[in-house]
Design brief:
about 15% strand; six-stranded parallel beta sheet; alpha/beta; four-stranded parallel beta sheet; about 450 residues
Length: about 450
């Protein structure tokens, strides 16, 4: 196990860098990329997300977002009716009419995303051309972009990746001779992003921007002097788009737990020439707070086995955190897609012998879960209830994306998300209930 207080990574004795990967292609159980709107619309405060899809799309977003009764949401669905699908109406004229009405009602919207869905892609509605046409019409007041949130071949976190990749072409070019700058890539909760910015500022790294920014007018420039840190492991297309603009990715663990956060911050410190004394002074308090908080939770998780079914792309960094900082034993870690370059530092830190799988064949994976009987299974909502009925404790993977889990001060909150299902099972066990009744 690493020593978070030291801020260094030990040389792993095993790991999964060269481990065989079980590749599966079959039936999948995942939310579609439209789900990303739920956290993206909270982050981007002057953006609006207009899904071009069916009533099913509308029900998904409404139920996932839980709209407050006094709040006017910044997302909606342009519902495609049977006549649209049958080609009896001009879908582009209908879309223009919906957008006109929307922007007349919501003049505060500075960025409008047209979000593709399975239905709009099936009828080959060209939202890219529609966005270009509408952007020309409203370009002086509202920018219009598009991306695909279709779930035909994607998992739900790829909606954020597609959204951020669509923003990259709108980022200005760096000014000639610009000083090196740091870009945090990934939609973090504001409180977490502010924590990271304070840490970087204390190290002397003052030119720090984010993708996405909270307002479109603050979208940063990008170029060869941009160094970027990925906050999420599912941003492959966004990273590639930034690299095509000349930006350089800083290789690091993802900022989950004390160890991951320290390594993530160190990558920036090394790139910007921060000396070791300053780095230790700035990060030591956070590392120590995280270590103390995790000490309180470790007894509940140490030695417990865990299986991750492929859903969010967070599986490998989370398994590393749970194994190295909390003593859990990963049996299988499944990912929708294994992006080796972005996980190059993560894979060696997984316990040797961990079964890695890529892609999904639900029936086969459930057979392995039943055979392994892990103490905890991390999976999508569609699989959680059936497994619970079979006596297996589960954790909803989507909750790990909705919750603030990055950084030192959220390490214990992240650990607690895994401890609660086990604690609930213990409290509901018949023996424990009888003992409490006697007490």
């Amino acid at each position: 196990m690493s020593d978070p207080a030291a801020g260094t990574l030990p040389t792993p004795t095993g790991g999964c860098s060269a481990a065989p990967v079980l590749r599966e292609r079959g039936q999948r159980e995942v939310f579609c990329g439209l789900t990303g709107i739920v956290w993206l619309h909270r982050k981007m405060q002057d953006a609006f997300f207009l899904v071009v899809g069916s009533r099913t799309c509308a029900h998904l977003i409404q139920s996932a977002a839980g709209v407050m009764i006094f709040a006017e949401p910044r997302f909606a669905t342009a519902i495609m009716e049977e006549k649209d699908l049958a080609g009896l109406t001009d879908a582009n004229e209908e879309l223009d009419r919906v957008v006109d009405r929307l922007l007349a009602r919501r003049p505060d919207v500075k960025l409008l995303f047209l979000v593709g869905s399975c239905p709009s892609e099936v009828i080959k509605l060209d939202l890219s051309r529609a966005a270009s046409r509408l952007d020309a019409r409203y370009g002086g007041r509202t920018r219009v972009l598009n991306y695909s949130g279709s779930g035909i071949e994607t998992t739900f976190t790829q909606g954020e990746d597609a959204c951020l990749a669509a923003l990259v072409p709108r980022m200005a070019d760096e000014a000639p001779g610009a000083a090196p700058n740091l870009l945090i890539v990934g939609a973090l909760p504001d409180v977490v992003e502010d924590q990271f910015r304070r840490l970087f500022a204390a190290m002397g790294i003052t030119t720090v921007t984010s993708l996405p920014e909270r307002r479109i007018d603050d979208l940063p420039a990008v170029g060869p002097n941009t160094r970027f840190l990925l906050a999420q492991p599912f941003l492959g297309d966004t990273a590639r788009a930034l690299e095509d603009r000349g930006a350089q990715r800083l290789e690091a663990l993802f900022p989950f737990g004390a160890e991951g956060t320290t390594d993530w911050l160190r990558a920036a410190a090394d790139a910007f020439g921060v000396d070791e004394v300053t780095f230790h002074k700035v990060t030591a308090p956070g590392r120590e707070r995280a270590a103390r908080a995790l000490d309180a939770i470790r007894p509940q998780l140490a030695g417990k086995t865990i299986t991750f079914l492929p859903d969010s792309q967070l599986e490998i960094p989370l398994a590393r955190f749970l194994a190295r900082e909390l003593g859990m034993v990963p049996i299988e870690v499944g990912v929708p897609y294994l992006h080796r370059p972005h996980l190059a530092r993560e894979l060696p830190l997984l316990p040797a012998g961990t079964r890695l799988s890529e892609g999904q064949d639900v029936d086969r994976q459930l057979d392995r879960v039943r055979a392994d009987r892990p103490d905890l299974t991390v999976c999508g909502l569609g699989l959680a209830n059936p497994l619970e009925m079979e006596g297996l404790s589960t954790k909803w993977s989507i909750e790990l994306v909705f919750s603030p889990v990055h950084g030192f001060d959220q390490a214990a909150d992240l650990a607690a998300l895994f401890a609660r299902p086990l604690d609930r099972k213990r409290r509901l066990a018949p023996g424990d209930a009888a003992e409490r009744a006697v007490a």
